[in-house]
Amino acid sequence: MRKSETHRSPAVRAREITKSFGDVAALDGVDLDVARGQVHGLVGPNGAGKTTLLGLLLGLAVADGGRLEILGTPVGRTLAVPDGVAGFVDGPGLYPSLTARQNLSALASLGRYDTGSATGVDDALEQVGLTDVADDRVRGFSLGMRQRLGLAAALLTKPRLLVLDEPANGLDPAGKHHVHRVITGLAADGTAVVLSSHRMDDLAALCAEVTILATGRVVFSGPVSKLAAESGELDYRLLTSDSEAAHRLASQTPGLRVAPGGDPARRPDAGVLVVRGPVPAIDELVVRLVRAGVALRELAPVVTPLEAAFLSLTGTVPAHTDQEDPR
Fold this sequence. Notes:
Distance between the termini: 34 Å
Strand order of the largest sheet: 6-7-8-3-9-10
Number of strands: 14
CATH class of the largest domain: Alpha Beta
GO molecular function, one term: ATP hydrolysis activity
Number of helices: 11
Radius of gyration: 23 Å
CATH architecture of the largest domain: 3-Layer(aba) Sandwich
Helix content: 25-40%
Strand content: 25-35%
InterPro entries: AAA+_ATPase (IPR003593), ABC_transporter-like_ATP-bd (IPR003439), ABC_transporter-like_CS (IPR017871), P-loop_NTPase (IPR027417)
Keywords: ATP-binding, Nucleotide-binding, Transport
Family: Belongs to the ABC transporter superfamily.
Oligomer: single chain
Domain ABC transporter: 12-240
């Protein structure tokens, strides 16, 4: 393959990938395409096969069948991937007795991290917001700090494909900001990022496309905007200056239904109204409220469009724990 063709090829191309553990089919004919410079989300219920697929991309496991191409190079039946692939599954592997800086320096001394000079270590720590704790031992780090240090370790390789398993686990708002900034910056520079997450807000903020797995099979793969459109009717929380008028107008808007609970005028929380319907019906309600002189103070989905689509496609409730089925 010519260099120009390799550059134009997807960072990841998987076709009919299968992987079983005994009698359990973790992956059953999975297709996946991830473009260079794209953040691609991988979501699904626990046990759907996400971790197995991430492990294949990192060379931690070998597929039983199918074709896998990473960074333009076919991946065979050995535990190996091309240079330029970095990331972690089930949390980063770190030395708890060493400091953050010592961890990165140790990794930089290995052959595959030979680009990690002292300057590179300090820069990686700064990017993920760990400069102030660079000389603290990792055993005292929180989960979120460990996640950020794992990301810093991946940055040392200057990856062309970054694979992250639940990178937002344990992050406070500041840590989340650092991680999001690093991921979007890498994608802008041409790095492909594949991340697994149960957090729909992270997916909406970061991902151009998502792939949803259920029982080892792909039930959706495509742009986030298309996934959101498939969510159908949603419940919206409505706060206005006149809840009685809002209730009346919502009841009169075609396609909308007011959530059960009686007349809002008779309840102490009368300011909040929940309505259900498709987006065009919600738009029509907003127009009617404005025409009636009713101020709209808040309008937000009770469940995000991405989460609603997730529930519809998988028939399950997304987990919100930090634990993941190892398969």
